[in-house]
Write a structure and sequence with these properties.
mainly beta; 39 strands; about 5% helix; about 30% strand; 14-stranded mixed beta sheet; twelve-stranded parallel beta sheet
Length: about 500
């Protein structure tokens, strides 16, 4: 706009025009007082030739924040009149349903009021996780929901997000995207009760055991969360309010937390009408979440409806996925990569208790998972297994590749009826077990320690040997043995394929 004004002035000079204001009398050289200027100005003070000043009125849909150039006395209706703090934008947009808060690059901590409460269908959108950082936490949250897990002990929360969709204001989903979220700088290791993003409100349905999940009330995309949270993301519910969060998480990175994503945080009592649901990953490789250095990547806790863990990269951490549930939950684990090659080395890929049922366990890859003292301590058990299934049930397992780990699958506890880790009779759906062995000591493809009498179904899979090798001792069988039966009823392996001859990693054997 300033350029337009300058060009106009130069044009007048070129034509001999006098840029001073005169009254048209004979004293042409005298400067008179100009008439009042009634033209509309833009935010820089120039004449606005293209419409009203966008900073003149408060916004209703998009509120702008800029920690460098903003001022909390502004209206936040444009980049030139942005707020300085996210807290000011949240306060100004409190009644603006479904508004977006656009946060410029910078670090936001000093001057903010934590936790940042992002509800009423509003969304918080940064300039990218590499550019926009939110740092801080406070125990002074106000959930208005008694008996949620937040009300048990003291929790320090950075962002409290999500709401019940619909209603009189037609509330939509809350989105958090393009942000890095970290605890206060004083928190230098993963610290108990420091939580990155917490959601305990949404439209999760009555308890259920099958997909599809409900529409997400919380959408998390393109975030980096951590390091040093206890739990980076917590998806839970409010028992007294009978509401629960339903979340979708994609394209995000979780660093050095005790738990990357915790689902099913129901607090002192499970809600009787709704349980939280979560989709961690959406099945698209381009949308993968990455978990690095988390002691547990995804923790399916004691309540929940559908929990889908799909197409994620779990590259290090003591345990990739831990599932603790009762019979009402639905779990599916699809197309994930579990790779323990990066320190801290993964000790267990998937770890379940005796009541967890995995409805679908398909298309996952497990490699480089090994025992370590640190992982043993963190997991409370001996590690070095792609999976420890502590009883419970697997209803379907197809096309998993389990190779180059200290051990493949450990099956213990009381095995439920209907357990099925087979190809379903289709060669293309075979699970592949190979090169699971120890560099030092003895490791195996499948270790059976369950207590029920029926044989476990592992038919139609491919092994190191055509006709998988078997042995009895859980500790002294030869390194690389395909199936160690212990005192269990063994495994059904009919329909096995040809021996797998793919070269093993250094130190591993067929």
């Amino acid at each position: 706009m300033k350029r337009i004004v300058l060009v106009w002035a130069l044009a007048l000079l070129a034509c001999g025009g006098d840029t001073t204001t005169t009254d048209g009398g004979t004293d042409a050289g005298a400067q008179d007082v100009a008439a009042p200027d009634t033209s509309v100005k833009d935010s820089s003070g120039d004449v606005a030739l293209d419409g009203p000043d966008p900073c003149a009125s408060a916004p209703t849909t998009t509120f702008y924040v800029n920690g460098s150039s903003g001022n909390d006395a502004n209206k936040g209706s444009g980049p030139a009149c942005a707020f300085k703090t996210i807290s000011a934008a949240l306060a100004a947009s409190a009644s603006a349903a479904n508004a977006t808060i656009d946060v410029a690059a910078g670090t936001y901590g000093a001057g903010e009021t934590f936790p940042l409460v992002v509800d009423h269908g509003r969304s918080l959108v940064g300039a990218g996780a590499s550019s926009t950082t939110i740092q801080g936490a406070s125990s002074a949250y106000n959930t208005t929901n008694t008996a949620s897990f937040l009300d048990t002990g003291t929790h320090f929360v950075t962002i409290l997000a999500g709401d019940v969709m619909g209603g009189a204001d037609s509330l939509g989903a809350t989105t958090l995207s393009g942000l890095t979220i970290v605890p206060p700088s004083s928190v230098t290791t993963p610290t108990t009760n420091y939580l990155g993003v917490v959601c305990i409100a949404g439209n999760a349905p009555d308890t259920g055991t099958q997909p599809p999940p409900p529409a997400a009330s919380l959408v998390l995309a393109g975030l980096t969360v951590g390091p040093n949270f206890d739990s980076a993301i917590v998806i839970g519910s409010s028992p007294t309010q009978q509401v629960a969060c339903n979340a979708t998480i994609t394209k995000s990175t979780f660093l050095a937390a005790n738990v990357g994503v915790g689902t099913g945080a129901c607090g002192t009592a499970n809600p009787s009408q709704s349980w939280p649901s979560a989709r961690v990953g959406d099945g698209q490789a381009a949308d993968a979440n990455t978990f690095t250095g988390t002691q547990i990547g995804v923790f399916g806790q004691g309540c929940g409806s559908m929990q889908s863990i799909s197409a994620n990269k779990l590259t290090s951490g003591y345990r990739g996925v831990v599932l603790v549930s009762n019979a009402a939950q639905y779990f599916e684990i699809l197309g994930n990569t579990f790779d323990g090659a990066t320190a801290p080395n993964m000790g267990i890929g998937i770890h379940t208790n005796g009541s967890a049922t995995i409805a679908k366990l398909d298309d996952n890859g497990f490699a480089n998972i090994s025992e370590s003292n640190a992982a043993d301590t963190a997991a409370g058990t001996t590690t070095g297994y792609a999976m420890i299934l502590g009883g419970g049930n697997v209803l379907e397992a197809r096309r998993n590749a389990i190779h180059d780990n200290d051990n493949g699958v450990y099956l213990g506890g009381s095995l439920a009826n209907g357990f099925d880790f087979s190809s379903g009779g289709q060669a293309a759906d075979a699970n592949k077990f190979f090169c699971n062995s120890k560099v030092t000591g003895n490791g195996y493809d499948l270790v059976l320690a369950f207590t029920t009498n029926a044989a476990a179904s592992f038919g139609g899979n491919d092994w190191d040997h055509a006709g998988p090798s078997t042995s009895v001792s859980l500790t002294t069988s030869a390194d690389g043995t395909d199936i160690v039966t212990g005192t269990s009823a063994g495994a059904t392996t009919t329909g096995y394929g040809a021996a797998i001859t793919t070269a093993c990693a250094t130190g591993r054997v067929h």
